[in-house]
Amino acid sequence: MHFKYLSTCILSLLFVRPANSHTVGLLLNSAEPVETAAIVELANFTMRELHNSSSSIDLAMQYHDLTYLSVMRAVCKLLESDVVAVVSASDSTITEIQANLLSQYHIPLVAAVATNPFLSASSTSYLLRLSPSDIYQSQAIFRILKEYGWIEFSILASADSYGISGVVHLQLLASRDSRFNVKDVQHFDVAKDEYTKELQLIKDSLAKVIVLNCGGRFAKQIFREARAFGLMDKSFVWITTDDITSRPQVLAVNGTFPSYYNGIIGTMPHVDIMENDHMTNFYGEYGGSVSDFRISSVKVADGLRIVHASLKSLDKSSWNSSPGANCSSISNWAEGQRVYTKMIRAFRDGVADTISHHDESPRYDIMNFRSDHFEKIGMWQYNIADPMVDQNRQKVAWVDRKDITYIGGHHIPPSGFGSSLTGYHLRIGIVPEPPIAFLEDSCEINNSSSPKCWYGWNPDIFEQLATDLNFTYEYVMPPDLKYGGFDRETRKWNGLVRDLVEHKTDLTVALSINVERIKWIDYSASFYEDQASFVVSEQLHTSSSNMFFFLEPFHLSVWLSIIGFYFSSGSFDDVLW
User: How many Cβ atoms are within 10 Å of 160's Cβ, its own excluded?
Assistant: First the structure.
C-alpha cells in the first residue's frame, strides 16, 4: 500500500474523538494508483479541517479493483466499520454496484464522479450524485456538432454503464433532428484490450466525425489502433468525453504524447477549482500535480463536507447513529432516510459558504488537445430557466477566438464529410449485361474479379471514381448471374441483392428500384434514367364518345376472323367447353 495511505490511520491517533463522532466510508479505485493517492491526500486535508468541529467524522477507507467481487468485499468491510454514509470516487459502472449494495441497508452513498443519468432509479434511491448527468454532456457535444455542421457522425463507446448511458441522449438528440445521421454505434468489451473489430466497422461507416465515450484507461490503445486504421488524419474529427479530457496523462506513451493527439476536441464539467478557498489551500500544500485528478474527483472533498454538515445537523437532536449493518444479513437502518434527506439539503443549499452551491445550470468546458494538455477553447451552459428552451438558444460561448488546432495540425475545420476513400478496398457486385457491363473474352466467369476484365458504362464509372476517391476495388459476380429476386417462401434473395444482404459485396450498380428491394437495401440518387417508352397508334387518342371504342385495339380483319371462327365451331357453349 502507498505510504500516503497510512496517513489516515495516523489521524485517528492525533485527534481526541469528540462525543458526537461518526464513521464515514471512502471507496477508492486501486486500478488508478496516481489519482487514488491524490484523492487520499485531498481527503486527509479535508479531514484535518473537519476535526476542528464539535461534530467529527472518522474516515474508513477501502480499496477495490474493477471486479464485482472486489467492490462487494470493500463495501462489506465498510459496513463492519459501522459507517453512516459512504463517499465514492468511482465512475458510473462501479458506483452502480456500490449503490445497489448500500441501498439495501439504507446507507447513503455520495458519488463524486458518477454521471450516469439512470443512477437515480429506485434501486439506488440513497444515492447523491455531485457531478452533472451525462444528459448535459450529450447536449454540449450535440451543440458542438451543430456549430460546425458535422451532421454525420459515428459513436465508439465502452460496453459498460459509463459508456452506454453516456451516449443514449446524444443518439436521441440526433434522432430528433432530421438533418443528423448517426452512421454507426459500436460498444467494445471492457475486458479486452484490442478494438480492431469495432474500429473496422466505424471505418466502414465512412463517418469522418467520431465521438469517443469510455474510461480514460482505454483511450491510448484506441487512438493507437485508430491511427493504424487511417482514422487519425486531417479529414477526421474526434470528440472525447470527460473521463479522457480531464485526465490527459492517461494518453501518455512512455511519458510523451504522440503528435497525432493534437487536434482532439473534448468536453468536461466546468469546475472553478482555484476559486474555492479550500482547494486553493490544498494545492498550496499538495506536492503533486493538478493533473493527477479528474476534475470531478475534487468533489470528494465536497462529499465529505456535505456528509459532515448533515451529521452535525442531526446531532442537534437525538438519533440512532449506529446502523449495525453487515453483509451476513439484510437490515434496514431506520435513520438512513434522515441522513440522506439532510445530505440533499446541504448539497442544494451549500455548506456554510465553504463549497459551491448546487449548480442548477451545468456548464461544460470545451477543450482542444495541444502538445501535452487539453486547453480550454469554449464553454457550453445549460439554461435551467427554461428547460424546454430551443437548442439553438443554448449557445457555445467561445472564450478564445484564436485558431483551434484540428487533427493533422491545421486550423481549418474539417467538413465532416468524406472527400476520399484512401485505404478502402471495395467489393462491387456485377453481372455481364451489354452495354452496361461487358466481360473481356480473355477472362473466365470464375476468374473475373480484376477491374481489367470489365468494360462498359458501369466499369468506366468505377474506374473514374477509384481515381477521384483513391480506393481500390474488385468485382464479384453472383453464382446465378441474376440481378435479384425475392422468394416469398424461403424469404431469401438471389443474385446481386443477395450478395449485398449477406455482406459479400459493398455495393452494386444497375439495380432498378422496386418496393421489395428498398426494404432490404439502400439506394443512392439515380445517375441514369431509362428513356424507354410505349409506342401506340395515334388513332387510340380519338374521342371516347365513340360507343364502339373497345373495338379499336384490333383491326377489322381480326374481328371478322373471330366471328368466322365462332360460327364455324358450332354453339357458343361448345367453344367455352
Answer: 23
Distance CA 23, CA 544 (A): 99
Centre a 10 Å sphere on the Cβ of residue 508 and count the other Cβ atoms it contains.
23
Residue 189 CA to its chain's centroid (Å): 14
Digit-coded pLDDT (tens) for 113-129: 888 888 765 556 899 98
Q: What would the pLDDT profile of 213-225 be if each residue is shown by its tens digit?
A: 998 889 999 999 9
On whether the CB atoms of residues 363 and 339 are closer than 8 A, the answer is no
Distances, alpha carbon 52 to alpha carbons 15, 143, 302, in Å: 9, 46, 17
Q: The whole model's pTM is what?
A: 0.72
Please tell me the distance from the alpha carbon of residue 204 to that of residue 219, in angstroms, as a whole number.
21
| Cβ contact 412:404 at 8 Å | no
Reduce the DSSP state of residue 188 to 3 states and report it. Answer: strand
Closest by CA to 354, choosing from 270, 282, 286, is 282
- Pairing between strand 85-88 and 109-111? parallel
Specify whether the CB–CB gap between 95 and 87 falls below 8 A: no
SS3 134: helix
Mapped to the 3 state alphabet, what secondary structure does 7-66 carry? Answer: HHHHHHHHCCCCCEEEEEEEEEECCCHHHHHHHHHHHHHHHHHHCCCCEEEEEEEEEECC
Which residues make beta-bridge pairs with 85?
A: 24
Q: What is the pLDDT of residues 138-180, one digit of tens each?
A: 999 999 999 899 999 999 999 988 889 889 999 999 999 999 9
CB atoms inside a 10 Å sphere around CB 438: 16
* CB-based contact 213:163 (threshold 8 Å): yes
CA 49/CA 28 separation, integer angstroms: 21
Q: Is the pLDDT of residue 318 over 70?
A: yes
Q: And the C-alpha cell for 254?
A: 512512455
Cβ-contact 215, 191 below 8 angstroms: no
Structure confidence by residue, pLDDT tens digits, 334-376? 899 999 999 998 888 776 444 444 445 788 889 999 988 999 8
Cα dihedral sign for 266, 271, 275, 276? negative
Task: Choose among 123, 7, 142, 25: nearest CA to 78.
Answer: 25
The DSSP code sequence of 263-292 is T-EEEEE---GGGSHHHHHHHHH--S-GGG
Residue 412, classed as helix, strand or coil, is: coil
Amino acid at 206: L
Distance CA 405, CA 417 (A): 18
Gap between the Cα atoms of 66 and 40, Å rounded = 18
pLDDT at 535: 65
Tell the burial category of 527 from Cβ atoms under 10 Å away from its Cβ (0-12, 13-18, 19+): exposed
The average pLDDT across 539-546 equals: 54
Mean pLDDT computed over 478-489: 87
